[in-house]
Specification:
The chain is mainly α and about 240 residues long. The chain has helices at about 1-15, 25-30, 60-65, 70-75, 85-90, 110-130, 140-150, 150-160, 170-185, 205-220, 225-240. Helix 5 (about 85-90) runs antiparallel to helix 10, helix 6 (about 110-130) crosses helix 10 (about 205-220) and helix 8 (about 150-160) crosses helix 10 (about 205-220). One of its GO terms (biological process) is apoptotic DNA fragmentation.
């Protein structure tokens, strides 16, 4: 009876997080994730596939905006990940208002990779919580997951890993907002102390998601590649919640 009480909330949590049920081959065919192994064929939109232009900066726009890959950011905060297609990474860092006059009405930005990052982070965090939570109740695991995936939490992780220094933003209002938010987090050393920050929200959380989405797409839709990079940034705070 006791084992049944533990098992039921675990099953409910798995279902709520969208884990696929069935054979491994069916999971790979149904969702664009490579988990625990390789996938024989990447989904459309992965490296070299159809639709990838949706996830990358066009070469002519890259030239017009003089975009350059921030190698220091890759080396120091993204595990020295080597992008097969750097234009995907550049798109992940591009604010829609950057160098508006040079765009010729082209509003390319990080946004397509933002929602991709949301999906892959939800999956990785859900799996980590399920595997490592000491309390397997549905409420506890859902709370832990939500705590690290909130907008203010992702903005905190972004600033602590210097995302705000490398995004392509040039309008004074956005630049001032980033500086103010980062300054307010200077003395905040843990996610639990975020409530004491002067400013608790910033649009920089969107870039945290888009960069994770960029790595996911560039790696051939492999959550196994994204997982160690993401967990390096959030694991300490996530473990305190488990």
């Amino acid at each position: 009876m006791a084992s049944t009480r533990i098992l039921v909330p675990v099953v409910l949590f798995v279902a709520s997080c969208g884990f696929a049920v069935g054979q491994q081959g069916q999971r790979n065919a149904a969702a664009p994730f490579s988990v625990g192994g390789s996938v024989s064929s990447a989904p459309q939109g992965s490296s070299g596939g159809l639709g990838q232009e949706h996830f990358q900066v066009a070469p002519d726009l890259k030239q017009a905006l003089s975009l350059r890959v921030p190698q220091e950011f890759l080396r120091e905060h993204l595990g020295d990940y080597r992008f097969q297609n750097p234009n995907i990474f550049l798109k992940a860092l591009l604010h829609p208002t950057y160098k508006t006059r040079d765009r010729k009405d082209r509003h390319d930005s990080f946004e397509p990779l933002d929602y991709v990052g949301s999906f892959v982070m939800d999956y990785i965090v859900s799996r980590y919580v399920l595997m490592n939570a000491r309390n397997k109740s549905q409420h506890h695991m859902a709370e832990a997951k939500a705590s690290v995936l909130r907008q203010d939490s992702l903005a905190y992780f972004a600033v602590k890993n210097n995302f705000h220094k490398y995004v392509f933003v040039d309008r004074p209002v956005e630049k001032a907002s980033l500086r103010e938010f980062a300054e307010g987090l200077r003395n905040v050393q843990a996610l639990g102390d975020l409530k004491y920050a002067k400013k608790k929200r910033s649009f920089v959380y969107k870039f945290f998601k888009s960069v994770m989405g960029a790595i996911f797409v560039d790696s051939g839709y492999s959550s196994d590649v994204v997982e160690p990079i993401l967990l390096k940034m959030i694991k300490r705070d996530l473990d305190l919640l488990l």
